[in-house]
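Q: Joint fold for the lines below.
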Amino acid sequence: MPRKNSDSLGQGTREPSASSGITRRSFLKGTGIGAASLAAVRLQLPAVVAEVQEPPVPAVGPDPVPVTLQVNGQTYTVRVEPRITLADALREHLDLTGTKVICDRGMCGGCTVLLDGEPVLACMLLAIAAQGKAIRTVEGLAQSDTQLDPLQDAFITYDALQCGYCTPGMLMSCRALLDRNPKPSLADIKAAVSGNICRCGTYPHVFAAVLAASGQDPRLAQQG
Amino acid sequence: MHAITYEAPKSLEHALRLLAAAGEKGRVLAGGTDLLIQMRAGVRTPERLIDAKTIPELQVLSFSPHEGLRLGAAVPCYRIVEDPVLCQHYPGLVEAAGLIGSVQIKNRCTVGGNLCNGSPAADTTPALIALGAVCYVASPRGTRTVAVEDFVVSPGRTVLQPDEVLVEFRIPAPPPHTADCYQRFIPRNEMDIAVVGVGAAVTLDGEVCTAARIGLGAVAPTPLFAREASASLVGKPLDDEAIATAAELAQKIARPITDMRGTAEYRLHLVGVLTRRVLKVAAERARAR
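A: Joint structure:
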């Protein structure tokens, strides 16, 4: 069985079954990888099955396999190796680059997405293990091209970002908080973003934005 | 990360067959919050991952006054933290589970994974030791039980054989006037690894302590059960003097190292401080029951 030990993101392409449309980027990517995905189909065959006697569940991989993900209400099938994280699948195979990979080791919260409504780190979750779950990314927050999520509007109003790199993860943690707790206290908000590291130091503005988005006085953010 | 295969068994029996077929190349993946990071760093190199999250037997979480607690090895920590029954009966275990990582981490990480990772600084392990938790381990040869304090054999290594799966923990129902507590010391507010962590559970009859267990973390190559310190409390009123004696005995078995988180001397000091603190809190809680 061929082994791959590089740190590359592996082969793969996306096959949106309910895509919102073909972007220039996805078009170029799709046409470029066609041959590779055909090869992947061929390689994925029963080599693994032969190694496991009477496998109750066939082992998948290490070559790319179809992985079906439900992202922001749409179903996509990508061909990725089992080692590929959800963060890389989203960014490299679905062109959903709003999810940021900063530390890539579960320390910073930049890659926070919602898995069945709960915030998780997409860099510490294999894409293949996220199948069957409802995945929500920052691209899924806005209700339309012209109407942002009220939380996003509040982030803009209260200037809750500086370099902006942590912002998608911060938004997802705060969205999950508000979905569970429509009137969070300042302490609740702090706990919710304790895993989202912002070295610009925008936390007080994030607190104000979340307070405002939940109909509370944003000046409460200054009390802690 | 190196190349891997991935399997998502739908039952324990399937998982055991897969693990047996994988041999030394296999490893059970729980929350992945340690394992995937270690694999990316090349620290662990399993070639076949078997996902514990899809095994129903590892998701059990039930309590009854007769059976006590059954805690599946792959139950995510947020379920522990949010469970009102656990908060009532095992506040120390809830404290330990609640201290692990951020919201995002708690949504994935598991007590079973915390133990199988084999870190001497695992937060939930001293809490489990204090509660007298027993590990149920399954393999094609059957099921065996291991006390939590005997599970980790050296940093990163456990008693698990390549074909064994940690299925669940069983923790006795707390007798009347029994309570536990876990505290750790870290120099930050959150998101850190324990410099020292101590768990304790005590049972009172009036003011007299009738049972006690103390677990220590991050002060030896493995988490420790402070046997003599625990035994020293039994039969005595749980007053400052008895607590001070137990803390000194706990310090005697600590063999900490000096590293970036603290010196050995500092850790020894912390064992005393934290042992006194958790015993006092556990005693207050036990009195209130």
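Q: Anything notable?
A: Chain A touches chain B at residues 3-5, 7, 48, 51-62, 81-83, 85, 104-107, 109, 112, 115, 118-121, 124-126, 128-129, 173, 176, 191-192, 194-196 (CB under 8 Å). Residues 1-53 of chain A have pLDDT under 50 and may be disordered.
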